[in-house]
Amino acid sequence: MTSPATPRFSIFTPSHQPRFLDECLASLQAQTYSDWEWIVLLNIAMKEGVARCGGPLLV
Hints:
Order of helices and strands: EHEE
Radius of gyration: 15 Å
Oligomer: single chain
Helix content: 10-25%
Number of domains: 1
Largest sheet: 3 strands, mixed
């Protein structure tokens, strides 16, 4: 019998502070488990102060 495929993990990161994304990615890459995907949900504020949600960024 063959073993089942290893499950894949999805990590969702809502972000309104993009300056922290490099540090977050470095932390993910340092993990011992390598079968993951990282999805960043960008939340960029407009000048009027109303937040709009950008599309997901799949890394």
